[in-house]
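Exercise 7.
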Amino acid sequence: MAKTRLHVVVEGIVQGVFFRARTREEACSLDLGGWVRNCLDGSVEAVFEGDRANVEQILKWCRKGPPGATVRSVEENWEEAAGEFDTFSIKY
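Solution. The predicted structure, written as tokens, is:
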């Protein structure tokens, strides 16, 4: 299956609602590599890499987020897979 990479910035009420932790759980369940982190402006930024179908599934999840989150927008940037991730982590 084709591998791809997606960089997203999620805006809305996405900090303090376990967005990073749940993103990591979802990404790991989909066998995706990459990272997620909070940004100073209140958004959440993430990079996902893996099979295209699984990356599309995590994008769909990001548009909704965990209970308690209110996602206003998701900026997405699709790229070629670089193969640099072995796991999915939370950056602090």
